[in-house]
Design brief:
3 helices, about 90 residues, single chain, flat, mainly alpha
């Protein structure tokens, strides 16, 4: 019989949980960028990664950048409109 021991890490608070999640995004973007930079070699060596998958990753990368920028611009726009309303009701 095989004895298994599994250790589960429990976050101590929201700040620790948030910091862990915050570190994931830059590393994920760096990994995708690395994949896109060496796509020819990757597709040639690994038969499980197709050119279509590389296109999917490129679209995902661009959408992640544009999505973040769009949300930031919307928040700034809302703050500007709130601070300087176009019309008074």
């Amino acid at each position: 019989m095989i004895n298994l021991f599994i250790m589960v890490f429990k976050y101590l608070g929201f700040n620790e949980f948030y910091n862990q999640r915050r570190r994931w995004m830059p590393s994920t973007m760096a990994n995708i960028l690395d994949l896109l930079a060496s796509w020819k070699t990757t597709v040639k060596i690994n038969e499980n990664i197709s050119f279509l998958y590389i296109i999917y990753q490129a679209v995902l990368f661009v959408a992640s950048l544009l999505g973040t920028g769009t949300i930031f611009l919307m928040i700034v726009g809302a703050l500007v409109v709130r601070a300087h309303p176009i019309y008074q009701v």
